[in-house]
Structures are given as structure tokens and as C-alpha cells.
Amino acid sequence: MKRALVTGANQGIGLAIAKGLVEKGHEVLIGSRDLAAGKKAARQIGATALELDVADPASITRAVTQAGLVDVLINNAGILGAGRLLDDPQDFAVSMAVMVHGPYLLMHHLTPHMVAQGYGRVVNVSSGWGAFSDGVAGPVAYGVAKAALNALTVAAARTLPNTVKVNAMCPGWVRTRMGGMGASRSPEEGADTAIWLATLPDAGPTGGFFRDRKPIDW
After folding, report:
1. Per-residue pLDDT tens over the stretch 80-131
2. In CATH, what number is assigned to the domain containing residue 95?
3. Helix, strand, coil percent values for the chain (each to nearest 5)
4. Cβ of 32: how many Cβ atoms within 10 Å?
5. Which of 35, 45, 47, 124 could form a disulfide with 51 if both were Cys (CB 3.0 to 4.6 A apart)?
6. What are 150-205's pLDDT values in tens digits?
7. How many domains does the chain have?
8. Across the chain, how many H-helices and E-strands are there?
């Protein structure tokens, strides 16, 4: 049985990803800043909750120690931010911490086991707003952070052996607290590509950017 860690998974796309992986027979750890919310979500889908604030390196260290060996990592946690890009350095710093530094540290801690065992899957939940092809759009630092997460995906895939597959994906506009209720996709639709990438066969791609299971431009 594969063990998967999904960050920011007590609601929305993260919870849908976690549920999908449970249904595929994975042992799933739900990472959540709010442990009570994480436990409630975990009970609903048959997973285990883990207190994890991806913006806090000390929290990451504690969480990976508690998690043990992990075969699949889904870096899903995100923050939309508010205001204008160059007006709020603190907002920028938090965005980078949550969507770049946190994923980097989790990969740093968890991929050595994946390399050693000759199997691993890392999925970075990104956004079309982080694509240079779309002009790095989106509010505040969100697009910049997602673009950096995309760059981290490419560089990590090049660094790691092909047995550890690292890919980014765009879930589209999803009905979540962040996306709003007017969005065009359900959390399950948004989660589908992430679940696919998390369960790729040995011949599957690495170092790519996908939406609806199809490559998209960086």
C-alpha cells in the first residue's frame, strides 16, 4: 500500500485529491494547519490527519517526522493573498512560503526515501495564473509564487531519477473557498489530474505541466 501526504487537504481540491487516493487504495495523510478540521475531514474519507503548516519550517519538520516514509507527495496548500503585488512585502513573503518554500522543504525531506526505494510521485498543484504563456496573471503574489513552483517542478524533475516523477498541474477554476461558488468546476473535477499524476505508471511523464491530463504550456 502506498502512503500519500496531501497538504491543505481538510477541504476543497485537497480533500477531493485525498478522497480519490483513498479510493485507489492509498494510505492517506491529510496535512492541515487546523488539526481539528483535518481530523474531521479525515474521518469522512478514511484518512489520517496530520498537523502541518507549510509556511512554518518547524511545523514541516515535526510533520514529516510523524508521517514517516511517504511514497506520494501532493503539494496542494495555497493562499490567494490580497492587495497589489508591490505594495505588501509580507503578503508576498507568505505566498512564497506557502507555495514555494514549503513544497521545497517537503520535497527535501521526503524524496530521499522515494529515490532509495526506486518509486515516488510528487504533484505540485499549480495554476494557469503561474504560466508565462498566460502572462503570470492572478492577484498579488499568487501568480509569481505559482510560476516559481512550476520552475521548482522542472528543476526537481531534472535533479531526481526518472523513478521519482515530479509534475505540476492546473486544476482549473474550481468551486472552493478560494475559487468561489461561481466557478465552473467541482472539486472532484479539479482533483482528477492530480490523482492521475499521483498514480502514474513507470512509463509516465515527469517534469511536465498538465490540465485535464494533457500537457499545457509553461
Report:
1. 877 678 888 999 999 999 999 999 999 999 999 999 999 999 999 999 888 9
2. 3.40.50.720
3. 45, 15, 35
4. 27
5. 35
6. 999 999 999 999 999 999 999 865 556 665 666 667 778 989 999 999 999 999 99
7. 1
8. 7, 8
Catalytic residue among 142, 157, 168, 190: 142
Q: Are 55 and 91 spatial neighbours (Cβ–Cβ below 8 Å)?
A: no
Q: And the C-alpha cell for 10?
A: 481538510
Query: Does the annotation mark 104 as catalytic?
Result: no
Which residue, chain included where needed, has cell 480519490?
A: 20
Q: The C-alpha cell of 142 is what?
A: 499568487
**pLDDT, the chain, mean:** 93
Q: How far apart are CA 8 and CA 10, in angstroms?
A: 6
User: What sign does the dihedral 80-85-91-94 (CA atoms) show?
Assistant: positive
Instruction: Count CB neighbours of 69 within 10 A.
Output: 12
If 0-12 CB within 10 Å is exposed, 13-18 middle and 19+ buried, where does residue 56 land? middle
Q: How is the beta sheet containing 72-75 ordered, strand by strand?
A: 48-51, 27-32, 3-7, 72-75, 120-125, 164-169, 209-211, 214-215
C-alpha cell at 83: 492587495
For the full predicted model, state whether its pTM sits above 0.70: yes
H-run or E-run covering 216:
none
